[in-house]
Input
Amino acid sequence: MTGAHRVRDIRAEDKAAWLPLYQGYLDFYETSLAPELMDLTFARLLDPAEPMFALVAEGETELVGAAHCILHRSTGTRGDYCYLQDLFTAPAARGQGVGRALIDAVYARADALGCTRVYWHTHEDNKTAQALYENVATRSPFIQYRR
Output
């Protein structure tokens, strides 16, 4: 238990509760995925052969947050990197330590897996999240480019 929230691995029976969390994440970033991609993402998060994992935070009666991570190699280290791709807290649970509990659990999992780095991105306008991130990580000076 971390604070009032228990963080654990996602399970197959969590899909119905996970879907609104993931949809909330997508809505926040003003994007969408086709239902078959949502299904594929959930299946990948459960598949031990995939280089990814998901953690969820439980409130008293429901899931209140989720973190999705991708493990990958780096050219400069022996251990993998852990990319925290998605982090979302249900609006009603914000400000209650859910995000921090999830990040702490990601750090613990990455350490257990021998990862040499945990990193993530956020939108430059997401000041609320940045207030948390400034307390749990060091801001990188790198700028992301995409095709």
